[in-house]
Amino acid sequence: MKQHLTIIAALLITLTAFAQTGATCDDAIYVDSEYEMTTGTGEYWFMSLTSALPMTINIYPTEPTAQAPKIQVDFTCNYIDGKGVYDDPKVAKMISNASQYGLNLPMTYNLTPNADDNGQLVYSYTFPKNYQNMLYGQGVTYAIPAFVKLTTYCSSNVIIESKSMNTRCREYTNQLGMNTTLLYQPEDSVNTYVWPLGEWIKNNYQITWIGDKPLNFYTSVDCEFDRNRRVRNYYILPNDIVKMTTERASEWIDDIFQTELYVRMYTESSGYLKIATYEEKAMITEYFVGNVSAAIDQEKLTITATLPAGTNRENAIKNAYVNYVAYNGERVTYNSPLYTILYLGQLQYDISGIVVSEKTGSTDAALEKIEVQGTALPDFNEYTLNYTDIEVSTDKPEVTATAYDPKATVNIKQASSVPGTAGITVT
């Protein structure tokens, strides 16, 4: 008897676990490219990714007179006080703007009966184009979960199919991830590779080929290549290191269905293909205006300096020496005639803090010479502010300095010992 009880308990556990599949959104049934099941009366949750859109749900009821099934669509599984909780801030923003696309999530649909090609009763729902428009229109170019609750009022056969290019082409592709190196050989030229641009929309990355002979590759919106119609771009590496900025990636992605880029590559000799992230950070590194070294704050994007009294500020900025790091041919420009903003690519430095002194007296704080133990420094330059490794013959060497302008004040803090540091201040 004890043995029978053990077997019955195991059967009950198995049946309970089966009944829970899809019963709540936390236990939603994942649908990739296609799925089929027979349901009883009740609620069933399904989950897929938006990269599988467009997707169609077909419900075939066994009782033609039963109440029509209905579905509820949303992009979350979590609710507080009946309101959806969207952890991704971009998705939350998208949901708040859903009304622009004729959507008010979550949405419930009472399905209408139709007949399939064989005349069989079917209730169907296909995610309409306005879902696609909402996703991409609000900048959600990466795959996010989408949940559907199906309510049936009789035993039904449920068939879910994805018409996505991503799912159709998957069996032909090899996924290349970010920051990877691939040994690519001539025999690999028959394959098609996929680079998920939609997943990389937040990054800049570059594609580099290292090989004796060029790597040729075509890009396409799907895995079928037709040079006359389907090919998007053609490249030859190493003659071209392909740099992909987020803006360029956005141009390559036509819609939410194309979250991936398909690539057919050809080569006659082996080589390495590298895909790596990088940051394009333009910045001003040095700024000399009117012989004054300006202070640069890279976080606040400000450049400040006090020019000698009587300086023509506009001419000084026009003739300023600017050292900078830039990309894609960026150049330094100003908002003439005010000269309060310096532009470098997408950066805007506030230069309103470059001002002309109103004080009279000395207008030149440059040094004419520096001497150590009565001997002038042989490598002295008025723009050089630091000198190191100076040989001396005493434990307390004396440093002297002379300013160009006799009205300038020179203060010297001598080194207390050797090795040590002496400081010169010109006011």
Unreliable residue stretches: 1-19
What's the helix count? 6
Q: Mean pLDDT score, rounded? A: 81
Which class best fits the helix and strand makeup? mainly beta
Strand content: 35-45%
- The rough form would be described as elongated
User: What spatial order of strands do you see in the largest sheet?
Assistant: 1-3-11-5-8
Portion of residues within helices: 10-25%
Largest sheet: 5 strands, mixed
Q: What's the total count of β strands? A: 34
Radius of gyration: 35 Å
The rounded distance between the terminal residues' Cα atoms is: 103 Å
Model description:
- It is a single chain.
- With 427 residues, this protein is mainly beta.
- Helices cover 13% and strands 40% of the residues.
- The protein contains 6 helices and 34 strands.
- The protein has helices spanning 2-20, 89-96, 129-137, 165-169, 246-252, 313-318, and strands spanning 29-30, 34-39, 42-49, 55-61, 70-74, 79-80, 83-84, 107-110, 113-115, 121-126, 145-152, 156-162, 173-175, 180-184, 192-195, 204-211, 215-220, 231-237, 242-244, 261-267, 271-278, 283-289, 292-293, 295-297, 302-307, 321-325, 332-334, 341-344, 347-356, 367-372, 375-376, 399-403, 410-413, 423-426.
- It has a 5-stranded mixed β-sheet, with no helix packed on it.
- It starts with a helix and ends with a strand.
Structure at a glance:
This protein has 427 residues and is mainly beta. 13% of the residues lie in helices and 40% in strands.
